[in-house]
Records
---
Amino acid sequence: MNHCLRSPGVPPGQKQSSAKALPFLDRAGRPDYKGFTLIELVLVMTILALLATMATPAFSMFQKSSRLQQTAITALSAMNRARAEAQRYRTLVAVHFGDDIAMLSQKPKPCILPAYGEMEISCINCSNGDGCGWLSFYPYAPEFNMANMWDHRNWYPCTSKKKVLTPVPLKFSSGVRIITCAFRRSNGMNILAFPYYQKSAVGEIKRHCCAYDKRGAAAGYDYQNNFYYALVLDETTGEHLLIQVGVFQSNGRPRILPWRISHIQLPWASAPTALNTSDPLDLIKKIDNYPDAETWRF
């Protein structure tokens, strides 16, 4: 007796095609086909699509937060290297930060800042002083002949490089900006400002660099030529991190601070202006539209 299994529909005595696979049989001898039905497949695909939709915003926010942190770490690394080079060469060393020129209302003087997404470390020329003492830091200012220490143009920033220490610029994430600034805390407010900032092509350089003296301390005095803080900003979300660049006459290391900016101080205003919490980009707008503050102290 022939005990070979036949596919359903094949009459007795007729040869079965070898190309046709035999189905599995259940205990009752009926074909037992394995797999998914169309309804089951559509249901699974719908659930996966919903999960992907829910996960995308969270993943996007994680990416943005990650690039902000990474840029802050890169900036810290550049600042620490600049401090070390200033102590090594016994001279003033600056870090210049490239910015998204399209976002700036005042375009900076060309050929000084690196390209957007890059940082550059350089030894800088100084017309007077070594940056270590009170009012002893005057960056080389070819546009002006600063005759005395009380010249109102003592805001002049670091623009003249005598030796570039990073032939290949350091890179940071696109979509992130680095703005140097002044900062203080008062009555529960975290206040940002730009004292002695001239709204000009040269003046804009001041908001994109920081400098160290030969001891590794932040150069300058009273924010006149150099800002002691840096804001790392995500230009699409307004999220930011604050870095303390250094301290005047102290060789404290740069560090990331735990505070978020809540107010901005405009020149000669009686009180700081609170940021609009309903607009995440309000801080960026106020920074880019900051008025001239050439002779204003913070």
---
Amino acid sequence: MTAPVILARPRSFRRGRPFGGRPNRRKEELCPAPTQPADREAPAELDRIVGVKGKPVGGVYQFGIARRDHITQSGMSLDPAGPLGAATGVNFQPTGNGKAAITGDFVLAASEVNPVIRALRTNGIEVTALHSHMLDEQPRLFFMHFWANDDALKLAKGIRAALDQMANAESVGRSPEMK
């Protein structure tokens, strides 16, 4: 039997500093206060491209997009889908000069996973995770997380391209190019 190995903490931790040895930064430096879009028309344009009306929440413009199909878990209905985590969520946070950081997750049927990955990657949006939240939901759902920081309208078009690959609620029309 070998003796347990005891690892020493890096000196930077002992001084209360991150690995780089720099002093801890203030919260304001790490998470600057959200900025408002300079263009007051930006949210309306995002709504038009995405195909649903978003809402501003603390400097982030959020979209919730319900699926068209009825979802059940263990025989119980997951209605309304949004508050129960079975709706696609998309968040835009302005980062300056017409750009936005976007993140969120798509709620997908198995047949939608690859087409949505293709649409996101084609539009410069990174897929960061793919997993399931439930065990016996019907239809079987997968949750795909994404992230990007680029021109807000370009990213909105990428989100729209991904939504066009999904069975969304009828209120979320197809983009004009897909009709």
---
Amino acid sequence: MTGVPLLSVKVRRQDSFRFESLAVLLLLCIATSLLSPYFLTGRNLLNILLATSVIGILALGMTFVICMAAIDLSVGSTLALSAVIAGTVVSVYEMPWPLGILAALGTGVLGAPFSMICLALEITGDFSARAGRKSARSRVG
């Protein structure tokens, strides 16, 4: 046997940006618009934006969390709890929808500091704080 490895792996630099995903998305949009006359209509584009808005907001929040070098798994739980609170305020208590939005924003604003305080005071471990918030969310609904 020689000292040559059978499988060579290229390591990509972290600071390089690649456009393959963007190019595939652009080609997919072009192909879909050529195959369907309804794809590039304003109504369909609005439907696509509405369908992806929650994931986009969640991704923006996770970007801030990752930039602070704090990987927090409770972002999804906080989003779900905020949605449950907003739905409860609007449907059960029959309040106007702007109050539901304010309740959801308040839940999100208070949820993250609650988790961080528990972690900073070492009241619970990382996993316990997040599991406790998930448990609280399941009891609200």
